[in-house]
Description:
By secondary structure, the chain is of the alpha/beta class. It has 2 domains: 1-95 and 177-241, P-loop containing nucleotide triphosphate hydrolases (Rossmann fold), CATH 3.40.50.300; 111-173, no CATH class. Helix content is 35%, strand content 23%. It has 10 helices and 10 strands. The chain has helices at residues 10-13, 58-66, 88-93, 111-115, 130-144, 160-173, 190-205, 217-223, 246-255, 264-273; strands spanning 20-29, 32-42, 47-51, 73-78, 81-83, 96-99, 178-182, 209-213, 226-231, 234-240. Strands 6-7-8-3-9-10 form a 6-stranded mixed sheet, sandwiched between helices. A 4-stranded antiparallel sheet has the order 2-1-4-5, with helices on one face. The protein is globular. It starts with 9 loop residues before the first helix and ends with a helix.
Amino acid sequence: MTQAAVSPPPAIAATxxxxxxxxxxxxxxxxxxxxxxxxxxxYPGEVVGLVGGNGAGKSTLTKVLSGAQVAxxxxxxxxxQKATITNPRDAKVYGIECIYQTLALADNLDAPANLFLGRExxxxxxxxxxxxxxxxxxxxxxxxxxxxxxxxxxxxxxxGGQRQAVAIARAVYFNAKILIMDEPTAALGPAETAxxxxxxxxxxxxxxxxxxxxxxxxxVYDLADRVSVMYHGQIVDTVNKHEVSTDDILGxxxxxKKPGEVTQKEMEALELRG
Length: 274
């Protein structure tokens, strides 16, 4: 299976250097090739949707970028320079943050405490500086979600959209340039989904690059600039969103075929599935 080189949209192409350029990444577990010769890139202010069925290799690929999995071969460039990423701490040094579906928030702590979890601010005598942490949380949340006001209540009492905002704020505060968002709207209602989509648009406007992993084609089609589809560990194709339909993307996900390769009979079968 060959992989076409697809340029980012014109507004993004004006930025010459990719934030991330993953080249020829391979990961195998025993005799199973979870990721096979995958190349993918991401530019500032761009959302790349990474989609595929269960077991397609999406999670393994993003684990390589976030430092949770070491690739067997291939290389990663960040801002045009070769990066060495062997653990999550390395990834953070390069400004790479992953926001998992589970969010990794401490439910019994409030938003400021979660923002600084493991990186707490202290006073000169070593006590927690709650005032300074709350002030910082208010500033970053004010930029991402001006309506957020629940800074002193445990995050377990927040809505799903508000919890997403806290997790995103934590990444942004610590200078994330590259975000991996894993199913950011899963299990959210329509209003909360809209809130998270607005957060993603705000991050794009701030020049942050986002890999968006989602099973929700509508999320991907609404937010992504380009879409990369994985099938059995490989990239089927990377396409500019405005040049394909949702049916084209479904054909790649389900059949592993590029747009134009799907027959009329196969397309009808896909429509019946829908």
